Amino acid sequence: MTAFEKISCPVCENTEYKPVLVLTPDEFLSETRKEYYDLESIGIDFNTPFTVVKCKKCSFVFVNPRLKKEYNVMAYNVGKTKKYSLHGDEYEDIHNVKDEKKLKQKRVYTEELLALFSMGKRDAVVFLDYGCGFGFSMIIARAMGMDCYGVDIDQYRLESCSRYGLKVSTPELFDMDFPGIRADFILSQNVLEHVTDLNEYLDFIRKHSREGTLVRVNGLTPAVIKKEKRAGKYKLVNPIEHLNYFTLNSLDYLFSKYGFKPIRYPFVIVSNVPRSLILKLGYSYIGHLFFNIVPVFIRTFVQTRNI
Ligand SMILES: [Zn+2]
């Protein structure tokens, strides 16, 4: 079990938590994922238990103990590489979507992105996409005249971005490749749930922001766990890929430690869920989660300190 490490609550440093759920890969991996995940390479098997806990102090829900960063990256990257080699073509075509359902997703997402840009200052020009994937958002921002930068941990995606002439790097090499970048907009789409070291991540976000920078994040809430537990079928609750489940309170608390405060903005309603419910819960639906009706959050923060 050396692949695992026990951590204190990354949001509030507390060390007391209660278990929420124990699952094995056999239970949480779909048949397709079982095909491409190489568990052996990280020294675990289909019966290794993963525990999800809730912090007794701040209610943050997270996988603990969790795979150490290097094992997590290995599981994620090896898995993804195998996935691309099995289904490569459909990923190559991300900028040329022909599927009607995916096209609809892209349009809804584009509207959300344009809404974010319209909230910024008129002279805002630097855009940073942390977790840039295949560069879809950067291409939109670039078309609007912005200076765009992307960060990802996935080599396949980074290479794909480079082919489109996008300036991308890994979190570790970013500052060496692009020194002194401070963004006006930072986007981090479907990233938070994957982050092994949240404080290291927030440090990066703070370092590359300035006063007035808008940061848009989204992610999974603990309600996803309840929903999938009730259904007895796990998909988003995947303790290898998805480590963090935020309530808006725990999210706001974590971001406030780094000088950010949440801002209210008009929700773009992209599902048939009543607007009143979405406003009450603070949830909306975005990107690839749009067609799975699950509770996720979208939150925009503004940097308030000039550091
Ligand atoms: Zn906590």
Task: Give the termini distance in whole angstroms.
Answer: 41 Å
Calculate the mean pLDDT score and round it. Answer: 82
User: Looking at the structure, what is the overall shape?
Assistant: globular
Proportion of residues in helical segments: 25-40%
Shape-level CATH architecture: 3-Layer(aba) Sandwich
Oligomer: single chain
Q: Within the CATH hierarchy, at the fold level, what is the topology?
A: Rossmann fold
Number of domains: 1
**Derived structural class:** alpha/beta
Number of helices: 11
Give the ordered list of helices and strands.
Answer: EEHHEEEHHEHEHEHEHEHEHEHEE
Please indicate the percent range of residues in DSSP E strands (runs of 2 or more): 15-25%
Radius of gyration: 19 Å
CATH C-level category: Alpha Beta
